[in-house]
Amino acid sequence: MSILERIRENVSQVIVGKEEVIDLAMIALVANGHVLLEDVPGTGKTSLAKSLAKSIDGKFQRVQFTSDTLPGDVVGLEYFDMKESDFKTRMGPIFANIVLVDEINRAVPRTQSALLEVMEERTVTIAGETHVLPQPFIVLATQNPLESAGTFPLPDAQLDRFLLTIRQGYPNRIHEKEMLRRFRQQDPLRSLQSVVSLADILSLQEKAKQVEIHEEVEDYLLDIVEKTRQHELVEIGVSPRGSLAFMRAAQARALLKGREFCTPDDFYTLAEPVCSHRLTLSIEGDMKTTKAHVMKEILEQVAVPVENV
Fold first, then answer.
1. In the chain, beta strands by DSSP E
2. Is residue 309 part of a domain?
3. If you average pLDDT over residues 140-159, what whole number do you get?
4. Whole-angstrom Cα distance, residue 138 to residue 29?
5. Are 31 and 111 within one domain?
6. d(Cα 50, Cα 62) in Å, to the nearest integer?
7. What is the DSSP pairing of strand 162-166 with strand 34-38?
8. Fewest CB atoms within 10 Å of the CB: 1, 63, 74, 149?
9. Which ranges carry the AAA+ ATPase domain (predicted)?
10. Is 49 helix (H, G, I), strand (E, B) or coil?
11. Strands 280-281, 76-81: parallel, antiparallel or unpaired by DSSP?
């Protein structure tokens, strides 16, 4: 059994009937990218983050964002130790392999912006000193898309740093019944054991970068990205950072599927979760449609390469 198959099987003990969701989480892990978990409360967002961290034997930290959460509560701060009469640095919970930022849109913009350097550079600057975060490092942030009271919308610069968006949704009746039976006597998350090491994950991340992309498939990626910038209802399309994220995610998916090359299907499947949150719709667009619907329209308009690659 491969490394990725072991992770998938392990996480599936906790997350029932959500194979696509688990695959997207593993794609983010292999592509070394961050995830925005956007769904209503109680759909298993925290369980997904914890089970993924346990599976890779990584350090897990959870940060609950509220309106009074300060940047120092997240990244750490410098303080004066009265006993030793000296300044010391207290590392924040961001120093972990998998960090769950719960309800990220409840923090004020100042605190949200503390994650910008963290997510892009994988470093933290405290009192002018730069600290490197442990590797691998992934932020899984959650937000409830239906509740707006007491929230602060994430700025485009923040959204662009998420590799992809995952929407878990409700389980169907069969899977929910299986969940009830599995959790009846104990929580499977408590007994979950690691199945791979952090070194295995770092090795996979390097291997994913070697996955080949044929020129025609690469052009398909660029066609999709260009269409997002030209759509009549889109004010701001996918950025160059988004193009790189699209490529990395597709390489990770190919590796997940046991291939050494990307296919058009990799980009077709990942277009919505990777690109939709990067779009800024016009005022007319906000009134008429959704970002997900725009991406579906774009995929219908862009010709898919048909030659064997």
1. 34-38, 60-64, 76-81, 86-91, 98-102, 123-126, 129-132, 138-143, 162-166, 234-236, 280-281
2. no
3. 83
4. 7
5. yes
6. 9
7. parallel
8. 149
9. 31-172
10. helix
11. unpaired
- Prediction pTM value: 0.90
β-strand pairing of 34-38 with 234-236: unpaired
DSSP 131-167: EEPPSS-EEEEEE-TT--TT--PPPHHHHTTEEEEE-
What's the pLDDT tens digit per position in 65-95? 998 999 999 999 888 888 888 888 889 999 9
Indicate which CATH number applies to the domain containing 166. 3.40.50.300
215 and 189 co-located in one domain:
no
What's the CA gap between 141 and 139, in Å, rounded?
6
Strand, helix or coil at 209?
coil
> By three-state DSSP, how is residue 300 classified?
helix
Question: Could you give phi then psi for residue 236, rounded to 5 degrees?
Answer: -130, 125
Res 29: pLDDT: 94
**End of a domain among 186, 207, 228?**
207
Using CA atoms in the order 246, 249, 254, 255, what is the torsion angle rounded to 10 degrees? 150
- Mean of the pLDDT values across residues 39-68? 88
Tell me how far the alpha carbon of residue 73 is from its chain's centroid. Answer: 22
pLDDT in tens, 179-196: 899 888 888 888 888 999
Q: 63-67, 262-266, 303-307 — which one is most confidently predicted on average? A: 262-266
Cross-strand bridge partners of residue 139: 99
pLDDT at 153: 85
Last residue of a domain, one of 156, 188, 207: 207
Write down the pLDDT at residue 41: 77
